[in-house]
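Thread: "does anyone have the structure for this chain?"

Original post by V.I.:
We have the sequence but no experimental structure in hand. Need at least a predicted one for the grant figures.
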Amino acid sequence: MRAYKWLLGICAIAGSANAEQPMNMPVGVTDISQGVFSMHMLALWLVTAIGVLVFVAMFYSIMVHRKSRGVTPATFHESTTVEAVWTIIPFVILVVLAVPATKTLIEMEDSSGYDLTVKITGYQWLWHYEYIDEGVDFYSVLSTPRSQINNLEQKTENYLLEVDKELVLPVGKKVRFLITSNDVIHAWWVPELAVKKDAVPGFINEAWTKINEPGIYRGQCAELCGRDHGFMPVVVRAVPQAEFDNWMAQQTVEETGAELAAVQQ
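Reply from O.Q.:
Generated one for you, tokens below.
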């Protein structure tokens, strides 16, 4: 009885912890992310249907053709018809999955026709962003206080997913990312944008996004990159074009002022 109560307690704790987490991947705020989600759901329902059919057939065979009912086993060794069916059906399923998946993958790799280029460089353990054509760049560092990390104060909602400077992008514009690393392999990942690309030293990987809705979208490094791997989050703030232009003008003025101050010193 005591073991039973312990089991119920563990299930309750697991259920409450799981309730705080989404049960599915995010739909996202880009056409690509929504295409990826649609592919995920198509595959999920297909494998669910296959699983149901297989288990129904298996349990039906066990119950109806069991020895206790006096059923005489079949004596045939093989069936050309059955072999043809179980070859053709998986082939059709693969085609049904492959066509939309291939279309989505081709779109994910096509960064042509971009409006803005951002170079992303991974460091141990932070990100550097450079707006190539605008001459604006900055480092983005985890801003969660050490007191929270050391359990000296209560953790906030965006614990380990907040930075001092966000990557600001315009809504409705195609943004090309040039992703690399200064030291070890990192991976720049924002689930709601459906962008996840390795940052490899000496190489430049390419990705892109076109965000449909303003908002703040969070991600993190998805490649085990050392001691503080869990402390290099990604925060993207998507804003309307006019707000982005104002932000960019402010960054340009600040960088110009910093350069003048450096020269005067």
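V.I.: this helps a lot. The helical segments are 2-19, 31-64, 80-109, 146-149, 241-264.
O.Q.: and The CA atoms of residues 180 and 199 lie 4 Å apart.
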